[in-house]
Structures are given as structure tokens and as C-alpha cells.
Amino acid sequence: MKTLHNIARCALVAVMFLGLAACSGMSQQDTNTAIGAGVGAVGGAVLTGGSTIGTVGGAAVGGVIGHEIDTK
Predict the structure, then answer these.
(1) Per-residue exposure over 22-33, b if at least 16 CB sit within 10 Å of its own CB, e if not
(2) How confident is the model at residue 3 (pLDDT cuts 50, 70, 90)?
(3) What is the pTM of this model?
(4) DSSP string covering 6-71
(5) Does residue 7 or residue 64 have the better pLDDT?
């Protein structure tokens, strides 16, 4: 069982590194959108007690807000 946990942990780390590598060519607006969606998803999950609809809704709202933010 402990071996399965180690394999899952290594797979998670590998996926995280691949995800970060995919962000290297993003524009500032794309980065803001992704950050907004992530923060919105966490906020939606916290506010609704982990509800799927709350998480997805928070991600959508956060993504829109992040997209509209101008950092110039």
C-alpha cells in the first residue's frame, strides 16, 4: 500500500512539472486568467463547502476577472 502512495505522489509531482512547463509561453493576460481561475476555484470551494458547482462557478468567475485585469 505504501508503494502505491509513493507512485501516486511521484505521478502528481510529474504532472505538476509538466503543467508548469506548459505555462512558459503564456502572455500576461493568459497568466492572469489562469491565476484568476485557480484562485476563484479555491474560493468557490471554500465558500460552498467543496461543492462541485461552487468550485466550477468560482473558477469561471475568477477566470473572467483575471482576464479583465490589466497589469500595465
Answers:
(1) eeeeeeeeeebb
(2) confident
(3) 0.66
(4) HHHHHHHHHHHHHHHHHTTT--HHHHHHHHHHHHHHHHHHHHTTS-HHHHHHHHHHHHHHHHH---
(5) 64
32 Cβ neighbours under 8 A, 6+ residues apart? 66, 67, 69, 71
Q: Which three cell numbers stand for residue 38?
A: 485557480
CA distance 67 to 47: 22
Query: Does the pLDDT at position 72 exceed 70?
Result: no
